[in-house]
Specification:
By secondary structure, the protein is an alpha/beta fold. It contains five helices and 13 strands. The protein has a six-stranded mixed β-sheet with strand order 6-7-8-9-11-10, covered by helices on one side. A five-stranded mixed β-sheet has the order 5-4-1-12-13, covered by helices on one side. It has a two-stranded antiparallel sheet with strand order 2-3. A hairpin with a 2-residue loop joins strand 10 and strand 11. The chain is globular, with a radius of gyration of 18 Å. The mean pLDDT is 95.
Length: 272
């Protein structure tokens, strides 16, 4: 009996916006990002028993340093599950690609069971906002088209760094995916899309749009306060998200936050 026939869900973990530095003692708005990242991984290793794969959805490094990417990759190796990463606005793809030990982490299409996971690069060097190039949009459409004639693939999960729909705070206007209309038009055309997964805006969201679930996952470091006009940090703890991708196309998901620690952040900051 295959995994699909047995209806054993795929256990997927999303880690996002770790903002690691070359110097592991460095802080972002007073918070040591290496420490908070390690606490999230400790929680993950305590909670999770059988991870099929890990999705790292960008802003892995704050300073785009090779040292930060190497440490991140080494941490993933300790967990022992395959991981796949995409760059965010603070990352540099060219540097990430030089991490020889993790060349396979840049695969832009993962097929597991009767699911395909499509990885998109929405980063623009030197810009906070994101955009999907014609090549990335074509990759998305091609994968979704191919699934229509592939009986082995029934469901699709799409991953990118930037939010493809507006964030919940007014100050986030303009920092998301600039060509969101083109992206959403493609997603809306294909009935195999079950979920869209992203990070960037450092908060927890799970909502339904046109029959597709959209998931935003908290950062492993600082969190942005929702539903405010100006930039503000939240006091909720760093986290990761888990998904169970079921063979019938349904998705179970939850966010696990670090407990028992106080994360002191600079609430006077107006940005970073």
């Amino acid at each position: 009996m295959t995994r699909v026939q047995a209806d054993i869900p795929l256990r997927v973990v999303q880690i996002t916006d770790s903002h690691l530095f070359r110097d592991p003692s460095a802080a972002l708005l007073k918070l040591n990002t290496q420490n908070s990242f390690e606490l999230v991984l400790e929680l993950l290793q305590h909670k999770e028993r059988a991870i099929d794969l890990i999705l790292a959805t960008g802003d892995i490094a704050q300073d785009a340093s090779m040292e930060a990417y190497v440490r991140f990759g080494a941490a993933m190796e300790r967990i022992g599950a395959p991981f796949y990463w995409i760059p965010g606005n603070h990352d540099r793809r060219a540097v990430m690609e030089k991490v020889v030990a993790h060349k396979d982490a840049f695969i832009n299409l993962v097929k597991v069971g009767n699911w395909q996971i499509i990885m998109l690069d929405s980063s623009i060097v030197g810009e906070v906002h994101g955009n999907l190039s014609p090549g990335e949009l074509q990759h998305l459409e091609s994968c979704l088209q191919a699934a229509q004639s592939d009986p082995a693939i029934e469901h699709s999960l799409v991953c990118l760094h930037h939010n493809p729909v507006p964030g919940s705070a007014l100050w986030m206007d303009g920092i998301g995916l600039l060509n969101q209309d083109e992206f959403l038009a493609i997603v809306d055309r294909y009935s195999t899309v079950r979920g869209v997964v992203y990070g960037h805006i450092h908060q927890e969201l799970d909502f339904l749009r046109e029959g597709v679930r959209y998931f935003c996952t908290p950062s492993t470091c600082i969190q942005f306060k929702p539903e405010v006009e100006d930039f503000a940090l939240d006091d909720v703890s760093p986290a990761y998200r888990w998904f169970d991708l079921h063979s019938d196309g349904s998705i179970s998901s939850g966010v696990e936050r670090v407990t028992g620690h106080i994360f002191d952040v600079d609430h006077s900051s107006t940005g970073y």
